[in-house]
Amino acid sequence: MNIGLEIHSLAQRLWPICRSITGPGVRETLSILQEYLPDLTVHEVPTGTQCFDWTIPREWIIREAWITGPDGECIVDFHKNNLHVMGYSIPVDQVMTLEELQENLYSLPEQPDAIPYITSYYRERWGFCLTHRQRQALKPGNYRVKIDSELRQGSLSYGEVLLPGESEKEVFLSTYICHPSMANNELSGPCVSTFLARWLKEQPRRRYSYRIVFVPETIGSICYVSRHLETLRRNVIAGFVVTCVGDDRAYSFLPSRYGDTLSDRSARHVLSHLSPTYGQYSFSERGSDERQYCMPGVDLPMATIMRSKYGCYPEYHTSLDDLTLVTPTGLAGGFEALQRAIEIIEKNRTPRITVLCEPQLGKRGLYPTLGTRDAARQVQVISDLLAYADGTRSLLEISDYIKAPFWEIETLCSTLEQHELIRSSYDVPDNRKTTTC
Amino acid sequence: MNIGLEIHSLAQRLWPICRSITGPGVRETLSILQEYLPDLTVHEVPTGTQCFDWTIPREWIIREAWITGPDGECIVDFHKNNLHVMGYSIPVDQVMTLEELQENLYSLPEQPDAIPYITSYYRERWGFCLTHRQRQALKPGNYRVKIDSELRQGSLSYGEVLLPGESEKEVFLSTYICHPSMANNELSGPCVSTFLARWLKEQPRRRYSYRIVFVPETIGSICYVSRHLETLRRNVIAGFVVTCVGDDRAYSFLPSRYGDTLSDRSARHVLSHLSPTYGQYSFSERGSDERQYCMPGVDLPMATIMRSKYGCYPEYHTSLDDLTLVTPTGLAGGFEALQRAIEIIEKNRTPRITVLCEPQLGKRGLYPTLGTRDAARQVQVISDLLAYADGTRSLLEISDYIKAPFWEIETLCSTLEQHELIRSSYDVPDNRKTTTC
Amino acid sequence: MNIGLEIHSLAQRLWPICRSITGPGVRETLSILQEYLPDLTVHEVPTGTQCFDWTIPREWIIREAWITGPDGECIVDFHKNNLHVMGYSIPVDQVMTLEELQENLYSLPEQPDAIPYITSYYRERWGFCLTHRQRQALKPGNYRVKIDSELRQGSLSYGEVLLPGESEKEVFLSTYICHPSMANNELSGPCVSTFLARWLKEQPRRRYSYRIVFVPETIGSICYVSRHLETLRRNVIAGFVVTCVGDDRAYSFLPSRYGDTLSDRSARHVLSHLSPTYGQYSFSERGSDERQYCMPGVDLPMATIMRSKYGCYPEYHTSLDDLTLVTPTGLAGGFEALQRAIEIIEKNRTPRITVLCEPQLGKRGLYPTLGTRDAARQVQVISDLLAYADGTRSLLEISDYIKAPFWEIETLCSTLEQHELIRSSYDVPDNRKTTTC
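ok -> structure tokens follow
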């Protein structure tokens, strides 16, 4: 089955669940992911736990939320679209005039058919979200608002997959599971991550270990870092925040703090070959969990490969960010970009030529017999690879230098290794390359 | 009172004085500046004193200089405009034909209404300057030329203000006082410097010491360096030549020898925010006392912030460079640019965040309550400052990196220091950063 | 006599000789060059000698090669144009139909009047080259083909000139002598090299030693490196492959592996002043003996200054690359560019000013007395040279920095040295600058 369709089908299944930063929706989501990833372990962190400067909040349970109008008709119902209720709304059961109600309604005048996504995690209030068109049609009169929610001592839930490799050095993938029914931001993230984890699990050998986490955004990643800081700092040599990898309109890149890590270089290399006009954002335009991972003292080499970037497409954080916007093609493209970036990290090595001057390719059958343009290009690329195989540069650096895709160079390198014209060395990359400009 | 008007009023007072590289005009100028700067000390260096490759010349005294025409009418009179006599003219009292006179007249055919500014410090001759229009109207006949001047053993005069700070490391300002009645080049320089010195004197604390000198150009700065070389080399961590800071048409920048000192970086930062299209000149286009300060073995980190640069505006070195060209607005702008550059040097420090991951701004009231665009920008800037507060970069480097003005970042940094989210360290900058490219 | 005409006249003399990678044509060529260069020694390397990954091939002797047509008429004759026979053709003497003959004919449909240049050094076959126009006119019928050639145990020949200098450190020039009658690629190379060697020989003093070699391309340079590897690695501080230096349409540059050696910097400097729009190629576009010299473990600092680059002009590797395409002017220009690049290497040094602050140029007569624009520029350049004469940068670096030609700066430097305002030091450049990017 086509990978894009498989990922899309998982997204459809997770779509109706009402996720937030805590609560049953997160657990239900993780439980479905466990069907795909038996290695996924779920962890609970109790309300009130201190995580650096933050405290795990109370758990939010939402059972129902609706408004009925002056004639008793149902205006909005959380069960029809979970964006209708503001995330972390406190309970309410009250009759009020339209005027009073308006203060707790949220809509988007510029996108009159979109329901906005609104939350209030750290200030107690309640609210309803609806389309501006519907809001403008509300008649004067008395409305009954009812939110049957609860904020109680509970826990924050997150999932974690650890795949051991030959080295304890790790590649770290982090995605988030705290948004209700929205597709590019965010269902594409956990769904693509799930299939990346399955692909990694199937590999006959892994040079590096892999850590894939499914956390609520911000509080979840802060919590995760606070519990694993030393291990992460010691072992993570590259990593990616997986978010907004589902539509098929664009590729985008957001670098780590100084943009110079192995993750950054791999990602830029992949995107420059998959889509040379990919969107290049600066670290100042960040907005997801790299905000935590790339902070001083944490210093993880986390870059972000995206399709359309959060905040930069019109459907962002509205009901229009749905599973028609996110397509199997878009998901497959997001998956491929991350897969290629990971393959670069796995296969990168430093080649060294074993002969002096150019080797005679012809006597080894390495000289293409057909005189086509493609053959000429291949001879050129082999020749360049041999010339730069001086033991000072990795395949990734050579690929960038000669402007050829890593996957082409790496395949040629393997061939030349088989002919004993190249010997390569594998060095563990330096994960502290986050403080140079 | 508006600072621009105050500076302009000082310039008006100094305007009529006939300054040269030595002589009574320099002393009168310094004496007026002492009214504004009681700390200003005046130094005299005797004729014949050796200063590196140069010798202090004889002192020039000019009492009168005029030409009368065939009908006895007054053609030019030094007392009407001190540009009429060539600087350092030797005495003359002679009757000659127009033809003979022409050899000692100077005018500008392309600017027929401007009197040029001409000097002959190191070759003995005499001359008169006048407008080309007037020159062309001269009738044949006999002219009497009279210059009552004197070149005698005397001294070169300069002024110096030393303002001690917490550190003996110094910021050095140098301006020149050797030009007769011209406004942008040069009265703007000593006038703005005077008000910078007053402002620095009023500061409740100064991290660095300040040295502000008023010298005749070239011979004066060479002389000053020759008397203070070791102190300047040891202590000066930044500095500016103050010249051409009076008109309101442009901002310009001339870097130090390699353009990489703290002075250069501060100046570029200020100008890029005050006037992003400011004129960027190369060190090869220098022409004032940075010619001496930036020479090998002297190696002072001196940059030059200007309004319209010397040599690059049509009125330069003519009678048209007057106090209508130099305006209160222009002077205030020159003052502000230098003031901001000095403030950067004073307030620059290296911040380090005190918590891991992002701090929770909301619980400290640091999250703006109004959801405006400005508020969103401020959150972004706070967030960037915290992310780059990794102890490896100064506020100036961070400001440049995230493209925000230093003064905005520095204010936010102070707030975050008050909330103990940032601790900063102050390092003395390296004043030997003048030999890297 | 004009240098361009002299070089062109040597090219005319060498034109008719049938050169290949081995054989009598190479020896005849070297023997003529010995008339010009009595220091030229000729070396023979026997067939079968192992040179790194390669083996010296059998020697190729070609006596005659022709085709006669159905009516007995001569179709092509090697004695009319030595491009008619494929290089290293094995003997043949056979009658065959036009259809059979076609498989061994080579022509260029897109250049119907050009005879292509084809070789088959490492696979045994035979072939004829002719214009496409002639080929299309061939009538059906029987053709007799006759190639009287021989592949036998023999040797590969190359020539070498060694000119000792004050230092054993060397500048290395390499050119090739394996192409039959073609002018830009290749006769221009050995002819210009011959005159460079004569010019170097005539110099009253040489700071460096010079090694000029005339080798067959690829196998010859590999062979040469294999016999002199340690000496070359130890002594060569700069060098140039001399090829395609004969037409007058363009200047081109091909860098060494990382483009950062003294050769690269000298060449770029010369070309940027001779022809600012010169063609800048990348090392990936290489195609001559720098392919061997710049390989890892050999690491010679070899750059290539060309007129129209091989592979990049329409006449390349055809009979149209002749002595009308290559002109005396073109050859003189190629000679001049290489000569200037060598002069930079010879004369480069690190100047240091001997006084503090600016010296007084006037009292030494160094201040131009004429107030022309040229004079003003010269004062500026002297002033810049003095300012950057800080003992940290060579004349070449200073020339690049202030964007003035080396030859202008070097002349001024000599004058300032005579006036004892500058003292310079000569350092031997680092020849291992080939592994930094």
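The two ends of chain A are 44 Å apart (CA to CA).
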